[in-house]
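FW: tagging you since you asked about this chain on Friday. Here's the raw sequence from the shared folder, copied in full. Didn't touch anything.
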Amino acid sequence: MTEGMITLGLSAVLFAIGSVGVAIRRNPLIMFMCIELMLNSANLALATFSRYYSRVPETLPDSIELASSTDLGSATDGAVFVFLVMTIAAAEAVVGLAIIIAIFRTHKQVDADELAELKG
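HL: got it, structure written out here
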């Protein structure tokens, strides 16, 4: 088993833990932590795929030639996507925590089942 397969397996396990946590837990803070775990596992998978696919032309036999070196992208493409996902995760955490604090100030409790009753 290669290093990339182990990393992708770890990413899948982290994503599964996060999705089970979102489905089972009713505390919005725990749910946000699980969503962050899922986003970080996606970042791990993106970085792994970026590292693997940036090395593909080096591992091809000499008889196979690519049309150009830009067909598969560069090693920095995955890093750009990881940075984008991290930015979105940070914005999601700020907005989500602000909403949770605003609800806690008015209702003195934070429970996802109770919040569902606030619909008008």
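FW: The chain has one domain: 3-59+72-116.
HL: agreed, and The first helix runs from residue 3 to 24.
FW: great, closing this out.
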